[in-house]
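check these tokens.
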Amino acid sequence: MEDWIAMKIVRTLEIHSPIETVWGLLQDIPTVSQCLPGAQLTESPSDDHHQGTVSVEIGPMTATFDGAARITTNRAEYRGRIDGKGTDRRGGNQGELTMEYQLQSVAPDETSLAIDVDVDLSGSIARFGRSGLINQITDRLIVDFLECLEAKLAAVTGEEAASVSAHKIRGISLVLSSLGAGLAGWFRRLCSGGKNPPEDGDERDEDAGHH
């Protein structure tokens, strides 16, 4: 039986720029792709169809997806939708993504970006989704994406904005950082003799160990 997993990602991000500025940036697909770790835009046959690759290191494996995405937007409602599909031919993995996003002005220089993502993965990569590693990578990706957008919006010149890009995410480093956090929490509890309740970070580590 083929490995398969479906994932749901819902987040609301706060961006320190006016809504018109954020909307304009999100319509610049080549620029936005620079803020997606491991993504490379290869072709844009039209304004709403784009082709590219996405590479990500997950545990001991590297998956490189070749695929295409269709983007539809509603300017009046500051809303958009992305439908994408890709294949990792070397690893035999496949992925499909549907993402809807909504901008809302919360202050003259403050915009909220709400995203709702459905991801279907099949192949050996799905096993890492069950272990929770893909969720960790997704959380890191979102943080890096937001920081990259903020940096591009804050850039004074076009050259400065073009030089900003997301950092590559390495799955193995996330495994090691999670392991280190778990060991640190265990050591703190050991030294306290079990008298003090675990800190918030320790509770998360314990929960992660049960999955």
